[in-house]
Amino acid sequence: MRPGLVAIDGTKLNANASRDASRTAEQIAAEILAEVAATDAAEDAEADTAGRHADGDSDGGLRTRSGRCARLRALLDDLEAEAAEKSYEAHLARRAEKEAATGKPIRGRRPTPGSATHKSRRQANLTDPDSRLLKTKDGYVQGYNAQAVATTDQFVLAAEVTNLVMDAPASAPMITAAKKNLKAAGERRRVRRVVADAGYWSVDTVAMKGVASFIAPGRARQLKKIAETEQARTAILDRVEAGEIDTLEASEQLGVSRARVQLLRRRRAGDPDPLTTTMIAKLDSPRGRKTYKQRAPSIEPVFAQIKHNRRIRTVSRRGLTAADSEWKLICPTHNLLKVYRLA
User: What crossing angle do the helices spanning 258-270 and 247-254 adopt, rounded to 10°?
Assistant: First the structure.
C-alpha cells in the first residue's frame, strides 16, 4: 500500500426506497390534512361502535395513521428547515459573519438570489427520509452519495456515505479520516498529495493544510477555456490598476457589476494570482500532469469492482447512519479481497 498519493471520489448508491415514495412539500401538506380527516372519521366511528371489538383492532389502525401523520409532519418540517437554511438571506448572513470574524472578504463569486446554491430539494422520501434524489449519468436515483479515499494501488483508506448532491463538502473530512485511519493502523507514511476531479473544486478543498492538492477547477476539456478567461480578466484588471480604463469600462468588458470589479481588485491586493490560474498552471506542469493521470486508475476501479463485479449497487439498510455503516463494511471487504487475490 502506498498512501503518499491518494484519490478521492464518490459514487451514487441506490437507497432501499422507491422514487415513487417521494413527495413535495405541497403533497405532504395535503396528505397531512387527509390523514387528520381520516383519523377524525375513524375516531367518530370508534365512538359509535365502542365496546364492540374487545381485541382493539380499531386502535391499531388509529396508531398506524397517527404514525404516518407524524412521519409526514417530520418530513414537512425537514423540507421547510432546509429551505430556510439554504435561503439567499441566510447565506448572506453567514458570509457577513465570517468576513467580520476574519476581517477579510470571502474569495469566490458573490451569491445571487437566483443561484442554484439557494435551491433546496423539492421532495422528501416517505420510505427513507435521509435518502435523496441524486443525478447520475444514467438519470436520477433515490439514494446516497458514497465517498471513498483510495491509494494508487486501489486500497480504500476512508469511506463515508453522505446525502449531499455535491462532493466538495466531503473532501476535507474524508482526507482527515484517511489520515486518522493510517495513524490508527500504525502506518508511519502520511498522505502527502490528494488528487480529485472538478466535483471537489472549492477554495476550502484546495487550501487544505498538510497536503498538496491537485484538483481540476473544471472539466478537462474546459481547462483551456477557463485559463483563457482568467487571463483575459487579469489583463483587464491590470489596465484598471494602470489607470488606462476606469471600473465602469472594466465592468462592461467583464460583464459584471462595478462592485464586482472592486471586489476582484481587493482580492488581487492580497493574492495577485487567482486560485484558478494557479491550479491550472500546477496541473499543466510535468509533475501535475503525471499526478493527475493517477486519479482515475486509483479510485474508479474501486467503484467498478464493488458495483459491477460484486453487484453492490444498493444499500439494504435505511437511514444515513445505517447506510454509512453498511458502506464502511463494504469498503474493508474490498480491501480484504484485494489482499486475498494478491496473496
Answer: 100
Is residue 326 a contact partner of residue 130, using CB atoms and an 8 Å limit? no
Gap between the Cα atoms of 91 and 135, Å rounded: 24
Counting other chains too, the contacts that 135-143 makes at CB distance below 8 Å and 24 or more residues apart are: 135/165, 136/12, 140/19, 141/12, 141/14, 141/19, 142/14, 142/15, 142/17, 142/18, 142/19, 142/21, 142/22, 143/12, 143/13, 143/14, 143/15, 143/314, 143/315
Task: State pLDDT tens for residues 299-309.
Answer: 999 999 999 99
Q: With H, G, I as helix, E, B as strand and everything else as coil, classify residue 315.
A: coil
Sequence-distant (6+) residues with CB within 8 A of 64 are: none
Domain chopping of the chain, boundaries: 1-18+128-343, 19-126
Q: Residue 206 class from Cβ within 10 Å (0-12 exposed, 13-18 middle, 19+ buried)?
A: buried
Total-model pTM: 0.69
Cell 480484504 belongs to 336
Residue with cell 418540517: 77
Mind listing the pLDDT tens digit for each residue in 157-212? Answer: 999 999 998 899 999 999 999 999 999 999 888 999 999 998 898 877 787 888 99
Concatenated DSSP letters of 230-297: HHHHHHHHHHHHTTSS-HHHHHHHHTS-HHHHHHHHHHHHH-SS-HHHHHHHHHTSHHHHHHHTTHHH
Q: At 9, which amino acid appears?
A: D
